[in-house]
Design goal:
Elements (H helix, E strand, L loop, with lengths): L2 E6 L8 E5 L3 E8 L3 H4 L8 E6 L24 E4 L5 E6 L4 H4 L8 E7 H5 L15
Antiparallel strand pairs: 1-2, 2-3, 3-4, 3-7, 4-6, 5-6
């Protein structure tokens, strides 16, 4: 899998990152979620993982041809919004060695691969269940 860097939301020590792939998907790199209170609220199937990212990360979708990167619909893969306003996403953990070799990822981060259609649906007006309850 080839990655195309779209952007990061960086502060010292943190680096959630968004990539477009050559497989009609996005790779979202974010903070691993360890908080049991959050994990207990989710049904996480085997092979999937949960990450946390700031919503501003999706502003980089404009670099992939979208008019906006503002989230308007909080639906899957976004499962929850935390009290701090960050997004909890769930998806298949990415294990592709070629893609991982193109990334710099600290030990406290992990990445998921999500279909482009699922991410771009977040840019449309809310048409699904509301997940805005604070985590």
């Amino acid at each position: 899998m080839k990655l195309r860097f779209l952007g990061k939301n960086s502060t010292p020590g943190d680096s959630p990152t968004l990539y477009a792939t050559d497989r009609d998907s996005y790779v979202v790199q974010g903070w691993k979620v360890y908080a049991n209170d959050l994990l207990m609220r989710l049904d996480v199937p085997q092979g999937q993982t949960v990450i946390e990212v700031p919503p501003e990360l999706f502003e980089h979708l404009t670099k992939d041809g979208h008019a906006t990167g503002k989230i308007k619909s909080f639906t899957t893969p976004i499962m929850l919004i935390t009290e701090q306003g960050t997004c909890i996403l769930q998806g298949p953990e990415m294990h592709d060695p070629e893609a991982l070799s193109q990334m710099r990822m600290p030990d406290y981060e992990i990445c998921i691969e999500v279909p482009k259609s699922s991410i771009t649906a977040l840019l449309e007006e809310n048409s699904g269940p509301d997940h805005l309850s604070p985590a």
